[in-house]
Fold:
Amino acid sequence: MERRAAGILPLHKPAGITSFDAVREVRRLLDERRVGHAGTLDPTASGLLPVCVGRATRLVDYMHAQPKTYHCVVRLGERSTTMDQEGEISRGSDASAITDGEITAALRLFIGTIMQVPPMHSAVRHEGKHLYELARAGVEVEREPREAVIYSADLVAFRPGPVAEAEIVVVSGKGAYMRVLAYDIGERLGTGGLLGWLSRTAYGSLQLAGSVTLERLASMDDPRDALLPLGLAVSHLPRIDLGPQQATLLRRGQGVWLPRTQHDTPGECAVFEAGGELIALGEVQGGLLRPSKVLAG
Structure:
């Protein structure tokens, strides 16, 4: 039987291409139609882009739930129509008087659950169209603020001047826009701000240091060897391991009874068979594990 591609590809997306361009190239190299990324990186951004392949595309939403780490440069004293260096840039207020202590204090205000207005140049949909499509046509629409979570935001370097640069490391949850954060920091400090540079350095348990470039993927004898197990997408969920007989029943969509020690497994759980392969997601009720999503088979 032909080996099918299935797993998580920790791709190192370069600056200069879209996330969709990267997915299209992975699809070609793996000869697999079912390929999707977990979290857009803007064309000017680089870094870790988890790509779900084959059955793993059913787990994209679970990847989104994991924290992401970004290394960013915020330019204070400038503004942009796109909140980054792709748009039309104008001077803000002189940032010469801004100190690293003021930036650190401003960053603290954005830690926790915050509200962000999605930028016009984003993949959010409005009446069936992506906002970036409307923006390219010169149309701007009202956007409702959305919740975003910032777990931490630390200043790691500061270069003062009329246009100052604050280098920060941000750990965020689903739906946080670093461009909007850069803009909001600049507004809070009264200078204006834009995102000058961004790299995603971690995504859940995945690290940029362990990622694969498109060039490396193309040079491999079998690019499927770069795929990581599906279980990485649900590493944040409680885990249940089943023996062969129980795993067979679950693969068929049937519920299985668990030992008393696993009766209180909270909420949704990830179910693995003896060989370590993720076979399903499910929930435990009264000692009965019921599958909600069967992945193997």
